[in-house]
Amino acid sequence: MNIGVDHGYYAVKTRHFSFPAGITAYRYEPYTLQNTLEYQGKYSVCGTGRQPILRNKMENDNYYLLTLTAIAKEIQQRGEKRECAVNLGAGLPLAGFGREKKAFREYLFRSSQPVSFKFEGISYQVTIQDVRLFPQGCSAIAVHPEFIQGEPSVLLMDIGGWTVDLMRLDNGIPNASACRSLELGMIRCIDEAKEQVRRETGLSVTDAQVERVLAGQMCSMDENARTIIQKQGRIYTEALLSAAMEAGFDLKAVPAVMLGGGASVLQRGIRPQDGLRRVFTLLHDKVNAEGVERILGQFSSSVSKK
Fold this sequence. Notes:
This is Plasmid segregation actin-type ATPase ParM. With 306 residues, the chain is of the alpha/beta class. The protein contains 8 helices and 14 strands. It folds into 2 domains: 2-137 and 289-305, ATPase, nucleotide binding domain (Nucleotidyltransferase, domain 5, 2-Layer Sandwich); 146-186 and 212-281, Nucleotidyltransferase, domain 5.
């Protein structure tokens, strides 16, 4: 079975699931087994809130535990046996791909196989046969190649929780010299919106409320707070477009494909006066994980034919 996982700072995504990257450890079995992982005698409730930002995701076992959770969810969703073999695919930003590839593969592909754990009280025994890493953003184009057809140059903007990864494709091929990673992800936008609401109204709104307003969805909220959040969405859009221009990407000259959790915010925040050449928006937040899985399947198929 091939499973693609997008290890985001804000959320972990697979083909069928998206859940917060937060994780809470318990010494003993917690009051509920919902989203509870038991591994090596320790309990972790996965998908709770947001964990502190780690510049190196391999600093602790959190992302490994979240990966096991993702695998269990996909096995359950697909109706597969809980004793099985898995090929795991994941993405890394192109800017640091070569530097991080070996270490992150070793982090996910541990020597002790099969991996035994319980998720929501159900036992799993999974043999991770292989781990393959691919550039983020490029994997999304595997799902939607129509966005780059006929375009000699396209800018991919992957707007994640903590970083915005910028990558230019020339004739469909990633240009390694034209990629940047900016620390301007959605967490910055959400935190600034919450702070502005607190300053101007005295209200303490939640991350979930801010996300819904920024996405244009309904929720019960003070109208002044809603207006402030919407204004911050436009301010964030302006800041990100300006940062992309400063990084050497002229969005008035080159079409862009925007994806990731923040793509909907930019879609709503862009104005005609911004003068952007052409913008495609992928609002499906699982597109990176789906693309990685598709590439992994193509790779496995080509190997089996040899």
